[in-house]
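Before a colleague's protein record goes any further, I have to sign it off. What it holds is a sequence and that sequence's fold in C-alpha cell form. My question to you is simply how this chain folds and whether the C-alpha cells agree. Thanks in advance; the entry in question is below:
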Amino acid sequence: MSYYSGKLLIFLSTVILARLLSQEDFGVAGYALVVISSLDILSDLGVGPALIYHQKDERATHTAFWLGVGISFVLFAGVFLGAPLIGSFFNDPRATPVTRALAFTFPIVSIGHIHDILLRREMMFGKKFIPDTVKSFGKGLITVILALLGYGSWSLIYGQLAGEVLAVIALWIVMPWRPQFVFVGDIAKKLLKYGFNIVSINALAILLNNAIYFLIGRFMGAAALGLFTIAFRIPDILIGQFYSLVSKAIFPFYAKIQDNIDGLRRGYLESSRYITLIVLPIGVGIALVAHPLVEIVFGADWMGAAPVMQAVAFFMIMGSLTYNAGDVYKARGRPDILTKLSLVEAVFLIPILYFTLTSSDSIVVVSWVNMVVALVFSAVSVVIACRILEVEYLEILKVASPAIISSVLMSVAVLAVMSQIDDSLALVELISGVAVGGLTYVGSLWIFQRALVLQSINILRSAVAGKNARPADN
C-alpha cells in the first residue's frame, strides 16, 4: 500500500503531463531514461542483493556502501563523457544533454541505496512508506510545475533528479544506519562474487526489457518512443511494479529458508497462486478496455498507444511468471540459471525485434512479437523452477486454474457488454467494462472457488492487522 500510494501520485502526474507535453517531449526524455535505467544495475555491482543473501555482517554493510558510491561516480563519468555517442545512436542530438543531466542519478542514488537495502533485508516495508511517497510526490509535483512553466522534455529530467534527492534524504531519516570508513577487501570479494551473477541476470533482463525501447528510438524516432512509453505506463504500474514489489518481499523470505526444499516448494506454489489471481485479471482487463482507457486517461492524441498497451499487458503477465521462478533460483544459490536463460533469450529476441521493426515499421507488431518471445521463455523458466523444487507441472496449472477460468469468463462478459455500446461513448465503455469485468471475475471465484476467496480474505485481514495468517493446507 505504501508503494502504490507513491505510484498513484506518479500516475496522476503522468495523466497531467500527457496533456501538457507532446509525444516528442516524452520521447526525448525517454532517450535518457532508457540509457540510465539500462546502466542502473551496474551502480553497485549486485552487492545489495548479496547483503540480503549473506544476511547480517556490519563490516559487509559498510564495505557495500563505499563500493556503491565509488562505482556510481565511475558510471557518472562514463555516461557524461559518452553522451554524444547516445545522441549518434538515436540520430537525435537532443539525446546528448538530457543523458548527461540524468547521469547525476547514479551518485545521488548511491548515497541512499544501502539504506533501502537494509529496510528490505529486515523486511521493514512499512518504513519504506516515507521515502517512497516523498520521492513520488516530489517527482510528480516538480515535473508538473516545470511542464506548466514550459520546460518541455526537461521537466521530466529535472523532476526525476529532484525525486531521487528527496528519496535519499527521507531514507537517511527513516533508517538510522550510518556508514563508517570501513572497507574489507575479502568481504568485498565475497559480495562481488555473489553480486556478479545478480548483475549478469539483471543486466540481461534490463537489456531484454529495454531492447525494444532502443530499437524504436533508433529506427522510429522520439515521437514513436514517446507513444510506446505512454503505452507502458498503466500495465507497468498495475502489473509490472506489482510483481517486482512482490519479488522484493519474497526473495528475503526465500533466502531465509533456502535449505528447506519443502518450504520453498510450498512458498513457490502459494505465491504463484496469489500472483496469478491478481495479475491475470488485471492484464486481461487492461487489454479488453485499452481503447476507451487511453482516450479517457491520456486523451485522443494518444489513441495510437491503445493497441500497443494490449500487447504490453500480456507481456507483463508473462513477466510475473518469470520473476517468481527467478527468486527460487537465487534462493537456491543458482542465479546462474537466470543468467543463461536471459542470454539465450537475448540472442533470439534482439534479432527478431530488429527484423520485425525494420520490415513492418510498426510498434504494434513489434510489441506483440515481444510478447510472444516472452511467453516462450517464461514457460521455460517455470519448467526449470519446477524441476529444481520437484514440483509436478500439473501443480502449477492447478494453482493457476482459478485465475485462468475466471479470466476467460470475465473476457466473455466484457466483450459482450462492450459490443453493445457505441465507440463514441468511451467513458461509458470504460465504466461498463471495468464494472462487468470485476463483478464477473469475483463472482466466478466465489461460485467455483469459494474456499480460496475466504482464505484470501483471511490472509489479507491478518496482514492488515499485523498478524501471521496460516495458509490452508490445500
Observations:
- Residues 203-407 form one domain.
